[in-house]
Each structure stands twice: as structure tokens, then as C-alpha cells.
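ugh ok fine here u go
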Amino acid sequence: LGHVERCGVLLHLIDGTSDHVVAAYETVREELAQYDDELAKKPEIVALNKCDALTAAEIKKKQKALEKVSGGEVFTISAAARTALEPLLVTMLQTIHDYRGEQQPQPVPEFMRGTAED
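structure:
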């Protein structure tokens, strides 16, 4: 985890096809805290990935469970299908700029944007 210490913001991608999304989240959070308590305090963005392989009901259930345990918003995305990426990327950029004390975030580059479905 040494390389993560240099990061200002952590993106926690949770495999949406897992039956134990909360346990996966808690495991990584515990590992961060055990490694370095300051690391565990860094800003974090949580995203439920592989949502293209889930039903709407499964997504909602897993998203709510992760929001409860993380205490924040959980993005629902599919990296493979490139869906719902732009809101996540905009939030990541804003969080990074906030961490660095910068005023105005740059727009999300076109190649990083999701599909027209976003």
C-alpha cells in the first residue's frame, strides 16, 4: 500500500457481481487502517462496478448496502460497457481539485467519458 500513500483521493471499485459487496468494502477499509490510520482518512469515492451484469433490483440493493456502510454516495457503473462513468469522473476530478486546493476543475477528457447512455 506504500504507493497509495501518495494519492490524495482513493477510488474504491467494488465488484458488483460479488455476493458480499459490503464485506469486500470493509476488508479494504480495514487493510487501509491497519497499514496507516492517516491513509484510511483520505477522501474516498466508492463505485459499484460491473452493473451491466446485474438487474436493477440487485444494483439498488447493493448500492444501498454500500451507502449504509460507507456513509456516502455509491456510484453504479460498468467500466466494460462504459456506462455511467462521467458522473464518477467529474466527482473524482472535483475531489482531487478540492484536495489540492485548486479552484476550477478541468472538464472530463472526451476519451474518459462514458457512452451516450450516461
